[in-house]
Amino acid sequence: MGLPVVTSSQLVSILRGLGLHSGDGVMVHAALQFLGQPEFGPEMYLSVLEDVLELAEAGKGTLVTPALNFGFAHGQPFDQKETPSEGMGILAELVRQHPNARRSPHPIQSIAAFGRYAADIASRDTSSAFDPGSAFERMVELDFKLLLLGADVKFTTMIHYCEQRVGVPYRFWKEFSGKVRLLEADGTPGPWQERTYRMYARDLQIDPQVHCGPVQKQLQQQGKWAEARLNFGKVCVCRFRDFVESAEILLRQDPWVLVQNRPDGRPWNP
After folding, report:
1. Strand, coil or helix: what is 177?
2. Is 140 contained in some domain?
3. Of 103, 141, 139, which is closest to residue 25 (Cα–Cα)?
């Protein structure tokens, strides 16, 4: 027996019911395998998002996906145009390869975007992907929304922005240097150059298992989290401003609140 089919009309109805509208800025994390078999293939998800956000209508909305690849941290060169995202799923790659997409230059924690604010967001070349003035901070300023298409909340990349701002004790600053080839202003590949970027990296001696469950729980209690069941998974939506505010309140009260394997032995309470 095959997977249940997900139709475009079904998905449109769910997204609009969860509060997505024309002109919204949205960052998507996807695990499409939990939602069923999309009619016309995985491209259907991208097509529906283009329609709901009206990305083609004078760029009313903006769509962003993570385009992370940790090869640079292991000595591999980074090509802003050609290096694929890694472990981000097929939707992230569809967005990255979209002819109108822009990609931010951070060689480890980049994003891909197209639509109204794509050029603005993707132009942010900060030392850390979550620094002041970064693509992630800009999404908060522009009142972007988080959309989880079957993905668990633990995969929400924005949590690293909160961890860096609070200064959690289970991460530390680490610099990475290597060869990068960034795009020129006209979109053509520039020369290879040596660049150094940094990341607020996990302390592997602690090996923190971070989960955003407490943030989701707080947002649900405040009525700031919307979700709908779709076959074996869920579709969830919240505002990034609400997510960041909730996460930072929790982390300032207890910097270990998101760590499932707390070193103090206290049970984790999602």
Report:
1. strand
2. yes
3. 139
Report the C-alpha gap between 199 and 73 in whole angstroms: 9
User: What confidence tens digit (pLDDT) does each residue in 178-199 have?
Assistant: 999 999 988 899 999 999 999 9
For 144-169, give the DSSP string: -EEEEEB--GGG-TTHHHHHHHHT-T
The number of domains in the chain is 1
Q: Where are the beta strands (DSSP E) in 31-132?
A: 37-38, 62-66, 78-79, 102-103, 111-115
Cα–Cα distance, 162 to 245 (Å, whole number): 9
For the stretch 74-110, pLDDT in tens is: 999 999 999 999 988 999 999 999 999 999 999 999 9
Residue 262 lies in a domain: no
Q: For residues 93 and 83, is the Cβ–Cβ distance under 8 A?
A: no
Domain limits at 142? 5-253
> DSSP readout, 2-37?
-PPEE-HHHHHHHHHHTT--TT-EEEEEE-GGGT-E
Virtual torsion, Cα 90, 91, 93, 99, nearest 10 deg: 140
Q: Is residue 71 part of a domain?
A: yes
Is pTM beyond 0.90 here? yes
Asked whether residue 66 is assigned to any structural domain, the reply reads yes
d(CA 247, CA 120): 25
